[in-house]
From TrEMBL:
Pfam families: PCMT (PF01135). This is Protein-L-isoaspartate O-methyltransferase. The active site is at residue 61. SUPFAM superfamilies: S-adenosyl-L-methionine-dependent methyltransferases. GO terms for molecular function: protein-L-isoaspartate (D-aspartate) O-methyltransferase activity. It comes from Candidatus Infernicultor aquiphilus. It comes from the Bacteria. One of its GO terms (cellular component) is cytoplasm. Its EC number is 2.1.1.77. The keyword Ubl conjugation does not apply.
Amino acid sequence: MDFEKAREEMIRYQIKGRGIKDKRVLWAMSMVPREKFVLKENEKEAYLDCPLPLGMGQTISQPYMVALMTQCLTLEGSECILEVGTGSGYQAAILSKLAKMVYTVERLKNLADRAEKIFKELEIKNVKVVGGDGTNGLKEYSPYDGIIVTAGAPEIPQSLISQLKERGRIVIPVGNSFSQDLLLGKKEKGKLKIQNYGGCIFVPLLGKYGW
Ligand code: SAH
């Protein structure tokens, strides 16, 4: 299996082909070996145009969704980012190429441990994995320049809005537990201005301010 070729084709057809233009996002996606983040038995499917199972009912997001959510954050390199829902760690690995520091929270310990191992193996040093309920945010390292939630929420948790810097951006799927809209919120004068990027399907965000 030629993973490099599959990665190039993924970027050409699924990512560029659907209108993702941020050159740094395209570059990051060419740098991260997605095959390391999927389950061993799905390695050959790593670059297909779909989410894949991680076990325990969780999934690694479709590559296009990772690209779109990342592009929404308009990263320049100096940012501190909070991710809620580490899952495989793939989204955090992409962010690690584009921001200064990524804090990622995962409620399932075995997924958090698995992701941490992959970051070590790939020598990704600017991602910190924290176990727990990410709907509370992660006050310790706040405020954040950007927040990305990779599970479907009933609404945007107030805790996350308050841990976002003024002019910061939050990207989060909001809806019911079967389908959501991808929302981008920009914080201006303490309040979010919302843009809707259309329908998407994520596993549910569980926890205090989730389902
Ligand atoms: N970003 C991931 C995909 C995440 S799937 C990737 O790149 O692979 C959603 C993840 O969110 C699951 O691993 C699930 O366990 C986690 N999750 C759900 N609710 C959560 C919560 N309240 N806090 C932290 N993680 C949560």
